[in-house]
Amino acid sequence: MSEKITKKHLFSEAKDYFYITLGLLLLTIGWTFFLLPYEIVTGGVTGISALIFYATNGNGHGIPIMVSYFIINACLLIMALKILGWRFLMKTIYATVMLSLFLGIAQDLITRPDGTLIKLLGDQDFMSLIIGCCFTGTSLAIVFLHNGSTGGTDIVAATVNKYRNVSLGTVLIFVDLVIIGSSFPMFILARDFTVLDAAYKIVFGLCTMVVENFTLDYVMNSRRESVQFFIFSQKYQEIANAIGTEMQHGVTILDGHGWYTGQDMKVLCILARKRESVSIFRLIKSIDPNAFVSQSSVIGVYGEGFDEMKVKVKKKEEGRGEK
């Protein structure tokens, strides 16, 4: 039994690292190929690293992204060790090292001999922003969904999300606002931009923040979205057994009374992830094609098998459950 648990745990860990690596590759592609060449300001440690690169790249040889990214993350990881624990941070350390390498390789690929960066979409700044943010937002969601982090401000977001039921995108918005706002004086002082050009970069930075975090929340919530089923069938017992054994789902049987027929009947109530809907419908149809089924989306499901209620309970309220 313990051997099976160990194999299952190893498979789960290997799966997490595979998807974290995939997310890091997507992040590297979106950020390095679509955002960096256009000097688009972003949030997070990658945004800070980009600002350092922009500020020192006047002669075409700025401080490489991977250097500043790695140093800043190393400092944040040390501070977050006690809060997030070794298991979370091991994946974060892995992600930080791998992303630093990916960024270094990708930046070399798009850098010309004179130090300028290749713009894949020509003068299409905004289109490059949209494509890049779709990549980065999706990549962050993939990493977070598999118990990882790309480091930096993600560590801050993960820390808040651990204790509060606040979306990751919301936390990142506040942090990113500070980083993007700090780019205004940098462009004026270090790059001799006009006030209008610097403001133009700020607007693009705000668009980056909105698109990236919208994509992040959309992917995260679509994976966690839950649905509620009400099933009316004479074969309710067979359906309940099939769902309970084959899908390992809890089923609640409610007493119902038909107003028109005047007959008593049983109603099955099931809460499941949206991605499981097709499997549930197939089970129902295979047992009773004439079953009456109602499916509705629910805002949130909290408890065993679903999400955790991340709210603090006051001491007075804690005492109520003990009486």
Structure characterization notes:
There is one protein chain. 64% of the residues lie in helices and 9% in strands. The protein is elongated. The protein has helices at 2-35, 44-56, 65-109, 125-145, 153-163, 168-189, 195-224, 236-246, 277-287, 315-322; strands spanning 226-232, 252-257, 264-273, 292-298. Helix 2 runs parallel beside helix 6 (168-189) and helix 5 runs antiparallel to helix 6. A hairpin with a 6-residue loop joins strand 2 (252-257) and strand 3 (264-273). The protein contains 10 helices and 4 strands. The protein has 323 residues and is α+β, with helices and mostly antiparallel strands.
Give the oligomeric state. single chain
Instruction: Identify the overall geometry.
Output: elongated
Structural class label:
alpha+beta
Series of H and E elements: HHHHHHHEHEEHEH
User: If strands are numbered along the chain, what order do they take across the biggest sheet?
Assistant: 2-3-1-4
The major sheet is characterized as: 4 strands, antiparallel
Number of strands: 4
Number of helices: 10
Estimated radius of gyration? 25 Å
How far the N terminus sits from the C terminus, by CA atoms, comes to 39 Å
* Average residue pLDDT: 82
* Share of residues in helices: 55-70%
Please state roughly what percent of the residues sit in beta strands, choosing from under 5%, 5-15%, 15-25%, 25-35%, 35-45% or over 45%. Answer: 5-15%
Uncertain segments:
none
